[in-house]
Amino acid sequence: MGKAARKKGPKKKDGAPKKVREVFVGQPFEGLAAEPELIALREFVPSATVELPLKDTDGRKVVLGTVLPMAAAAFVRSDGQAFVGLQVQTRSTDVSRDIGRSIRWALEAKDGDVLSVPDTITPGGEGERLQDLLDPAAELDVRMHTDFAWWLPEGTEAEGEVALSLERANGAIMPSERLGTGAYWVDAGEKAHLRWVRPEPEGKVLQALARLSAAGEIGLGEESRYAGSFRAHGLLVPVWDLDPEAHAREWAEPAKQLGERLDKALASLDEEPLNAAERRARDGLIGRQITIR
Description:
Blueprint: H1 3-8, H2 35-43, E1 48-51, E2 62-65, E3 74-76, E4 82-85, H3 95-108, E5 114-115, H4 130-133, E6 143-144, H5 160-172, E7 176-180, E8 183-187, E9 192-196, H6 202-214, E10 224-232, E11 235-242, H7 252-268, H8 276-286
Parallel strand pairs: 2-4
Antiparallel strand pairs: 1-2, 1-6, 3-4, 3-5, 7-8, 8-9, 9-11, 10-11
């Protein structure tokens, strides 16, 4: 048999299913006003909940939580309250669709049901995304917690694997507080940090930070230092080291002022390109990538 015949191989039968290539979605929450909050809750906030402003719930409310018992994708408590988890071990190429499928499961599940892992088997184009279920302009009313007691209906005690999971989860919590949209203070022990998920394009954020850095305005005052940044789900997350002896509320006003300076710097970029000193500062910031894991 000649080379040409060997390369061609047998012809596919008409009607045979075509292989669908999964496309990785690098910015899964794009288009949602709550994008920075969702990224923060998924990546580094330890214990928090938010009632999802769903378009149509058929009467059942769904609460989005950072971590669920045994890192489940979703579950319905014995009192009928449905929860969907953000921090799960298994994921597909589109986190938004994973969450959307988990929400749909929670809306239809019975009391006591548990979805251990999100649905990553159904073909990628099938199933609702979070963008299909939420009002894109809706903000999230985040509720912070010091433990994971919200896993249980009020007045009940954890047993078996749930009790062990609860104990481990409570032991791993680092004190955290929300300072603003996508902005969270965390006490990591030797240092405290401000992690701030910014909604603007990464390049714009870096330029604005460079402008502040060159002007000596990138910090939050004494006992603070710009540490670097990391990427999460398509957005940039700048990080500052803070004095761990100071309480979170002491950084609320400095963070607000920093946000105002950053917004002003962002607004100036279109009419005023970076000068030489600011470009050098930007190059330095680009090299300061960090990891929180």
